[in-house]
Amino acid sequence: MSSIFSDKSNLIGASWFFEENLEVVLDYLATLANYQIDSGDWDAIDYGVKNKSSRDINFSYGFYTEQKIEFTIQKETGDSSYFIDVYGPKSLEKEVKTLLSIAQDYKLEKME
What is the pLDDT averaged over residues 82-86? Predict the structure, then answer.
């Protein structure tokens, strides 16, 4: 499976967001990709993201379906926020940018 990271024209959103919004942001990105996050995904994300403490360290991951979405996350040093770059189809750019904008200003809660 080829990666879309290498083509920066596939960047559809880049922003910081509050740490407590991590799960909701990733869950919504998965929804946009028609991907169901399972416990294995969360284990990988927890290990890759939450165990990092420097902006120099990235964690890359993807949701691979017909709407492939890939992302890199960096923990903001000394802060309770993350920085994310999201890559995917241009048709999702508006939704991704709106999500990230909201995640900067509000504490989001997961809908069950």
Answer: 93
